[in-house]
């Protein structure tokens, strides 16, 4: 049985009811740097995205799950992207939407559930993530979950008039 349930949170598929939650995230300019977003998204485009969210990871090469508490309140999103079945790897992204819900272990629990799912059910050999050098919370989260910093990409992202470095982290399933 596939279990995406933890002690305090669970991971679930996107639902049409998530429209306002995703709209708020995708249009929050304060996190555009994390998601490499350049422009706002309309409700119409997000609705279309949700209508196709049921497609298989092998077809669309990504999987987005909602991080939810047991009161069924959406707390954030966790993604597998650039899913590469041949080379058995995928990128990971995670976001807890509201600052009040950060530093409470929800991201830690969600990441651990996704790691277990990726290795045991998807048969992946490795996961990787890209983290801004300034994002100390994410560096700590991924390092705590066994990811190793394998590189530093100099002047990788142009953000608000200056270039920023980005770390590359990797977790290999041995």
UniProtKB/TrEMBL annotation:
Gene3D superfamilies in the record: 3.40.630.30
Family matches, as Pfam families: Acetyltransf_3 (PF13302)
InterPro entries associated with the record: Acyl_CoA_acyltransferase, GNAT_dom
Q: Which residues form the N-acetyltransferase domain?
A: 9-170
Report the superkingdom from the record.
Bacteria
Name-wise, this protein is GNAT family N-acetyltransferase
Q: Which organism is it from?
A: Postechiella marina
